TrEMBL record:
Residues 156-277 form the CusB-like barrel-sandwich hybrid domain. Residues 440-464 are annotated as: Disordered. This is Efflux RND transporter periplasmic adaptor subunit. Pfam families: Beta-barrel_RND_2, BSH_CusB, CzcB_C.
């Protein structure tokens, strides 16, 4: 049995069955997801919840309006049209790419034959292009190398016995003690010294002047050969008494580096009992790389900083360049003499050396950031003004303080690009490629098709 439906329900059913043109005579461009998710459809459809996609009309989508095409300048000659996306593709006539974008005209004068690149003021501003003039300045180039403090070999003394001896008494001196020249170190008994002293005493006390003349000089020399201190010999001559023991004193100011003497010990001939070094002047032995050896010479100033005192700079000069290269480290050793009045520099202390190899002669320099280095060539972009930039090969020299010396390629006062230069270099390569394609398009038609492409690639490769 059929039930009667209400008039309002019948009206809604009829509205749904009506044609879409009755609801809206406009044609939708597409249909979008009703939830706002980034999903679209070219035909009516529903989402997973059964909701219908919403139609989008031309009036609702401003982006669908095509951008106005820039009018060509009738006063300038168009050389060719290039791809709007920057691809190496050109056309002799106006055309569109696969996305419907118009090719961009390239006018005469924009494609310079001298290799320069011309950018619009807007592109220069957006890219952040900055330029700086080449100028002459004192270039400070530092060679940095590690080193170590060592004793001055000429300021080291040892106390060794020249005859068999016995240590009677040691003074209050230990390893590390600071001693002064003439300070007592120990008392020594030696039978050989006692015998020589008695012989010399008998000679100088003899009443026979001929005996003194004949034997006195030889007896005294024997004491000297046994390394008896001059003070002891002078005391013997004054008192006319042969000493039982001999007081041994420090031969120089310095630090006791080694003490081998012990009370009562027997010392054989040649045994080193004390080793004393004067460290008021020390050596810094610095190992520099082999590649820097050609820039160094004796007499150059060196700044030394001990790692224990990094805030203290010591000044010295290169005294010796050792005539050998370490085959393992490929370094050469330098000797720098340093004054050490406060005795802060100690043997085997690590130091860092800085050697200024540039001098004060001014050199033509540019910022290091201006150089484009592809491994085989160094190129800079010279700012010619009015948005024109010229790639130029340069020969470089020393580097330091954020600048680099230019030996050939640019003149003093010429401006070079220091920021965003890689973007201009990319633009230069693009234009070189486009010019190669243009030259290939103008070639005779009887040439093989591949020749124009090869020419384009060769031309592009020749550009910086």
């Amino acid at each position: 049995m059929t039930k009667l439906r209400s008039p309002s329900l019948l009206f809604l059913i009829g509205l749904c069955l009506a044609s879409p043109a009755a609801a809206d005579e406009r044609s939708p461009l597409y249909y979008r997801d009703p939830s706002g998710a980034p999903r679209w459809s070219a035909v009516p459809k529903a989402d997973a919840q059964g909701r219908a996609y919403l139609p989008v009309y031309e009036a609702d989508e401003p982006s669908a309006q095509p951008a106005p095409k820039p009018a060509a300048d009738p006063t300038r000659k168009i050389l060719y049209y290039r791809n709007p996306m920057g691809l190496p593709d050109i056309s002799k006539v106006p055309k569109k790419d696969s996305m419907g974008m118009d090719y961009v005209p390239v006018y005469e004068g924009e494609d310079s034959a001298d290799g320069t690149v011309k950018l619009s003021p807007g592109k220069i501003q957006r890219s952040g292009v900055k330029s700086e003039s080449a100028e002459r300045r004192a270039l400070h180039v530092m060679v940095k190398a590690p080193g170590v403090i060592q004793l001055d070999e000429r300021r080291v003394s040892v106390i060794a016995m020249r005859s068999e001896s016995f240590v009677e008494k040691i003074a209050d001196v230990t390893t590390g003690s600071v001693v002064k020249a003439g300070q007592p170190l120990m008392q020594i008994y030696s039978s050989a010294i006692a015998s020589a002293a008695a012989e010399y005493l008998s000679t100088i006390t003899s009443k026979n002047s001929s005996t003194i003349e004949a034997f006195g000089r030889g007896s005294r020399q024997r004491l000297v050969n046994l390394d008896v201190p001059d003070e002891t010999i002078a005391e013997l001559e004054r008192t006319r008494t042969a000493p039982v023991t001999v007081q041994w004193r420090a031969p120089r100011d310095g630090i006791v580096l080694e003490r081998n003497a012990i009370d009562g010990m027997r010392a054989n001939v040649g045994d080193v009992l004390f080793r004393i070094a004067d460290i008021s002047t020390v050596w810094a032995l610095v190992d520099v790389a082999e590649r820097d050896l050609g820039t160094l010479s004796v007499g150059q100033k060196v700044t030394i900083r001990a790692r224990a005192f990094p805030d203290r700079a010591l000044s010295g000069t290169i005294a010796v360049i050792y005539p050998q290269v370490n085959r393992d480290t490929r370094t050469t050793r330098l000797r720098v003499e340093l004054a050490n009045p406060d005795l802060k520099l100690l043997p085997d202390m690590y130091v860092d050396a800085e050697i200024d190899i540039a001098g004060n002669a001014p050199a033509l320099t540019i910022p290091t950031s201006a150089v484009l280095d592809n491994g085989s060539r160094r190129i800079v972009l010279v700012d010619k003004g009015d948005g024109r930039f010229e790639p130029r090969t340069v020969t470089l020299g020393r580097r330091g303080d954020g600048v680099v010396e230019v030996k050939h390629g640019i003149d003093e006062g010429e401006a070079v690009v220091t920021s965003a230069n890689f973007l201009i270099d990319a633009e230069s390569n693009l234009k070189a490629a486009l010019k190669g394609f243009a030259d290939g398009a103008n070639a005779p038609t009887n040439e093989p098709q591949t020749s124009s492409h090869n020419h384009a690639h060769d031309h592009a490769g020749a550009q910086p």
